[in-house]
Amino acid sequence: MRLLALIILVIPAVAATLGIKLIRDTLFGITHPIFFHISIQLIAALVFLIGGIAFIGGFIRYRDKKRKSSNSKY
Question: Can you give the residue ranges of every domain in the chain?
Answer without folding.
Answer: 2-67
